[in-house]
Specification:
single chain; 523 residues; alpha/beta; 23 helices
Amino acid sequence: MASPHRRYTTLILDLGDVLFSWSSKTNTPIPPRQLKEILSSVTWFEYERGRISQAECYERVAAEFHLDAAVVAEAFQQARDSLRPNEEFLALIRELREQSHGELTVLALSNISLPDYEYIMSLSSDWSSVFDRVFPSALLGERKPHLGAYRKVISEMNLDPYTTVFVDDKLDNVVSARSLGMHGIVFDSQANVFRALRNTFGDPVRRGWEYLRRHAGHLETSTDAGIIFEENFTQLIIYELTHDKTLITTSDCARTWNFFRGKPLFSATFPDDVDTTSVALTVLRPERVVVDSVLDEMLQYVDADGIMQTYFDHARPRMDPFVCVNVLSVFYEYGRGQDLPKTLDWVYEVLLHRAYIGGSRYYMSPDCFLFFMSRLLQRIDDQAVYNRFRPLFVERVQERIGSAGDSMDLAFRILAASTVGIQSPRDLEKLLEAQCEDGGWDLCWFYQYGSTGVKAGNRGLTTALAIKAIETTIARPPSPASSAASLKVATGKASQRSHSPRRLSSFLMPWRRAHRDSLAAAN
């Protein structure tokens, strides 16, 4: 797994079955299976090490496999003639080199005989121009997966294995590279490898923003049945994360807000709700007189237990702790948190007893609850309330670090953790690896409809969350191991708000360094 805290500066690629394709089918009596058995023989290994000539190799193989030497020579000549460079892969390497601004070294390390190496070097394709150097096993005198082959390349190029990525179609070869500290990628399919390389060497934030801007104004939500529909809630969250109104489309609501922008799903009409309204008032910040009038109206929908209900409709009594957190956020945003003491107490009990773990009527992810809680904590202006919630919140966030989850869960978790100074490098690694070829992140289910169980999500939201999570942690070094001294310091400052993170220096990946330099220039 690639580390977000490594600065990868070197890419080592295999040639056969990675950068070159070939066919084992020939017009000779040697079937493809037997041809591959020959390639795995000790004799062929000696040939690839440059210890025997082509003629001697063919004579030995003929004797070992009871074949005619001339037939062996003809079969391998036809196989050699079938070699074709992978132009798409070559284009990707050029793309990665360009994006690195000259900081990426690209090498080839291949198990290949000298005659075969001379042949591919004579091809009309300019494939070799993408490499700084090619290391054929015949000239190294050693072949993969033996560690000597890797060590010779490391020594001759003065490489740091810790900042090197290695790609090969054979797992044995990748394992050897990993054992020396390299980040190994198995070439199982071109799509997977392309995605892995772009996510390792590319700038995930830039690619994510490109995705959002390509789809600006059309970042609509879809259900698990593939129905695309228009709604306000997700649009408002995307705006809060990106601060870019050109990306979203919302209704023009004077006071309270409806979840849907267009025709509601499953019913002809749908009442306004306090969840969407709370986020809208928090994010859009209308005039204070309007805000206070809406908050006053919300208070009319508190039940006998003092818990805020979900809809501006007494005929539709629903309560959801996730919704209550967002309502509390807007009340604290405008200095009125004291108006909902019972709702606040209930949210605390939900956090204390982990009642959010299985989701709620409308939301499914426990990490979403913690993300909403982090929004609330950042708005609480009552120190006593803040001190009551923060230690428990820290404990609950720590419990989630490294848990299973999709891209949205990971981003929610990283963002929630960052507000209290907790780092989650493994979750960040997974999030970076999940970026799709088009620069966005995959569709994840954000909420569900209580009456039907239909799930809905938005790639724009997942992408905006991922970008924000990466930007939030971009300057954070890995968490050091806990010590008695550090635990004592952490305990002594439990009630204080987290300070700004320290910046990385030499371990910045190229895109991180470019991001840092661009920020410095802007300031």
